[in-house]
Amino acid sequence: MASTSNSTSSKIITLRSSDGEVFEVEESVALESNLIRRMMEDDCANNIIPLPNVTAPIFYLVIEHCKKHAEMKDNKEKKKELRSQGEELLKSDPHTYSNLMEAVNYLDIKSLMDLTAQWLADFLKGKSPRLIRELLKIKNDFTPEEEAEILERNRWAFD
Amino acid sequence: MVSSPFRKFDFEPGDDSSGFGTYRQLGDPEFNPCPPCLSAPDDLWAIFRGGDYKEDSLRFHILLPFSSLPSSPTSPFRDFLHRFVNQLLNHILVCQEIVHSSSVCFPLMPFHEKNLSSMANKRMKNTRVVPLPLDIIIAILSRLSVKSLLRLKCVCKDWFNLISDSFFVHTHLQHAKANSGFIVEMPIPRGKFHRFLGEIVSNPHFVEFQCDRLNYQSGSINRSPISSSISWDPFFFDSKTSSKNKKSCFSGMAGIIGDLTRIGATCDGLVLLESLSKYGLFYVCNPAMRQWVCLGREIGRREGGQTWGLVFNPNIRKYSAVRMTSRGHHDICEIITVDEIFESWTEVWVPQPHRSRSFPPVYANSYIHWMIHHRDIPDLEGNLGFNPQSMGYILTMDVISESFHTVSHPKCESGRYTLLQMQGLLSFADHASHNQLDLWVLMNVKKPTWIKEHSIHLDSIGRSVRTKSFLDDLFPLAILENPWRIIFKWTKRSRKMLSYEIENPSFSAVNLQCFYTAPINNDILGDGARWGPKVHANSLSCWT
After folding, report:
1. E strands, B231-381, where?
2. Which residue among B369, B386, B408 closes a domain?
3. Is B369 helix (H, G, I), strand (E, B) or coil?
4. Based on the domain organization, do B307 and B381 belong to the same domain?
5. For A2-125, CATH number?
6. Is it the case that residue A26 has pLDDT exceeding 70?
7. Nearest CB to B144: which of A121, A140, A150?
8. Do both B365 and B417 map to the same domain?
9. Which residue, of B408, B423, B438, is where some domain finishes?
10. What is the pLDDT of residue B169?
11. Residue A97: its pLDDT value, please?
12. Does B338 lie in the same domain as B467?
């Protein structure tokens, strides 16, 4: 492994994304993922850890977010910065955002799951059901009567 | 040497034509990937929008298959780049001459962000969008407010079922609890009360609740605290949106709003209200969902000192109301399942000679706990005396089996203690001395194991707080999460509460605009505590 360029003493873990790209990640970052932690504890991660459900560009995002999240602790400005980046991604490219969430969910990174879910929740707040259907590509499978009934039952919530 | 078939290729606009710019690998702190704005055809990998605009050009990061990367800048590669750029972007921009093979500089003009995203959207429409997995949907929705969720019920059938599902309700509750506030009764000054009643007649569906989310400022008490109370929507008992059963219940009561109620207990976002005019009736409502149900049977006279509890029975997945009434020298405990139809109270045998105190019981993890008196148990002659059997115990009921037993509590020298709930466990606050309060947590109810969780020393915090002591004027009301803090009633100032942060030991004052409790006499552990503010979180909980 030609990881001589890395001067830090921390251990480097090699991961392979679904499309075959190999990543070298510091152990402290990799262990944020409970999935990788479990694999390492079970000793089934001797060489390269395969991640069959994560593609390389998404994995880039995950790692960047992990690093920033680690920096962000006790730093309100960093927190704000990360949040605004997340929101921008959500607005500009919801598809990637949902891929990111899936990857975070698969890798089981609790801190990032909290963050990404909270951003999306904040984003959905106050949006109309119709807009949300469009944004998340959900098909409305109610008949107009059914929809009207549900709407009527919670009419005050739409004020 | 290079095991990866893919490499991130960063096109750095260089001013010489010699190289490609630099490879920047992951782990390089300077590398700052931007979201892929569109996915490329199969032979190309992805195109990343560069983070910055350089003069009049836009920078790109391009991911290329390693196989297509030449070892040295050759003209075939330059041609390839040209082709690639044209293929990908020709319908939104006319690619101008590429100055260097190492840099792809696009004129900014027609190529602004809007075009880029519309192109990305076009592409996305063609790709099949896979719906998010259920656990992610749950993670997102459980962070939304009750009002939003009621709206989102009409997104699709899956969401409708999910939001109504008990598992989801539970998950949502856990998030809601992390943001608990207090539900506080609105004072109704006596003079205004009649006027209020008069208004009620014309608008018979209206009851006002106010819930204050505590906002506080950490630090010294001498600084003026931030006072911000978020008032909730006025809470409507709306007959239009109620089901048939509720409606009849409503009309049968000739408008419950003329009814004066008091908050008896709260649990998981439900509130139990005791009627103060129609003795024997009580209401269970979810203020966030604007749902309510009237329970109980009216009786002619007012019963003596009652304490209420609202509990969740995990076995039958239902809520139950628990009522402890003191009659003469003994207590009667009654329990009833909260449901649309009121059946009748079931009496539960209370071990004698213990007598519960007039404090509201504390519900924690399917057990409900009462403080008991140490004295005033009559002897044979009827004199009130000291009952050594009750010393050092609390009275506990297992909600599932509906059976009582006593649990020994930590040694409490001063004899003054308060029961609280902390993270679903019973917590015992020992008013150890004037300047010390110890917080214990009950780990196992069956085999009582207490762990000392925290100890507050007034001396170590400093006397910036002008309070006397834990024995005289500080009375713990609740423990709230996020961050962990204990809320004290500050009896010297009737409209103030104190918040003590556990991890960063400091007091701060909490101002509530409408904080009202019954006046407190000299005895801080007296009756005044019974009607204090109750912890509440907006939830989807319901009784059906």
Report:
1. 235-236, 261-267, 270-275, 281-286, 291-296, 306-313, 318-327, 330-337, 346-348, 362-364, 367-371, 375-378
2. B408
3. strand
4. yes
5. 3.30.710.10
6. yes
7. A121
8. no
9. B408
10. 93
11. 83
12. no
Quote the pLDDT of residue B60: 45
Q: Is residue B239 a contact partner of residue B205, using CB atoms and an 8 Å limit?
A: yes
Quote the pLDDT of residue B189: 38
The β-bridge partners of B395 are B370, B406
In a domain, B328, yes or no: yes
Rounded to two decimals, the pTM is 0.66
- Which of B37, B127, B140 is the best residue to mutate to test the A interface, defined by the most A CB atoms within 10 Å of its own CB? B140
| Across A6-35, average pLDDT | 78
Q: Which residues of A touch B145 (CB under 8 A)?
A: 125
Residues of chain A with CATH 3.30.710.10: 2-125
Q: In this structure, are residues B506 and B219 in contact, taking their beta carbons and an 8 Å threshold?
A: yes
Residues of A in contact with B288 (CB under 8 A): none
pLDDT of B495: 53
Selected residues 202-241 of chain B with any CB under 8 Å from a CB in chain A: 233, 236, 238, 241
pLDDT for the residue numbered B188: 40
Tell me, yes or no, whether B414 and B390 share the same domain: no
CA dihedral B231, B232, B234, B237 (to 10 degrees): -150
Residues B356 and B414 in one domain: no
Which chain A residues are closer than 8 Å to B8 by Cβ? 60
Q: What is the mean pLDDT of each run of 10 residues along chain B (544 residues)?
A: 32 33 30 34 34 37 40 47 47 28 29 39 41 81 87 88 90 84 52 26 26 28 24 27 28 35 82 78 79 80 80 90 82 88 84 75 90 61 54 86 88 82 88 86 89 84 63 79 78 65 78 40 39 74 85
- Structure tokens given for A158: 């739409």
B438 and B391 in one domain? no
pLDDT tens, A45-60?
567 788 888 888 888 8
B428 and B509 both lie in a single domain? yes
Residues 6+ apart with CB under 8 A from B96: B106, B107
A20 touching chain B per CB within 8 A: yes
Kindly state whether residue B439 falls inside one of the protein's structural domains: yes
Chain A, residues 50-89, CB within 8 A of chain B, namely 56-57, 60-61, 63-64, 89
pLDDT for residue B463:
55
Check whether residue B307 and residue B400 sit in a common domain: yes
**Chain B residues within 8 A of A60 when measuring between CB atoms:** 8, 26, 33
Q: Say what the pLDDT of residue B415 is.
A: 75
Q: How far is A30 from chain B (nearest CA, A)?
A: 12
Find out whether B387 and B338 touch, Cβ atoms under 8 Å.
no
Q: Could you tell me if residue B419 is inside a domain?
A: yes
Inside any domain, residue B444: yes
For this complex, say whether ipTM is above 0.85.
no
Containing structural domain, residue B393? 258-408
Per the CB < 8 A criterion, the answer to whether B499 and B214 are in contact is yes
In chain B, the number of structural domains is 2
What is the token pair recorded at B388?
């050594």
CB atoms B154 and A118 under 8 Å: no
Residue B117 pLDDT: 42
Tell me the mean pLDDT in the region A74-100: 78
CA angle B330, B336, B340 (to 5 degrees): 150
Q: Which residue of A has its CA nearest to B120?
A: A93
Which residues of chain B does A138 touch, with a Cβ-Cβ cutoff of 8 Å?
A: 131, 155-156, 159
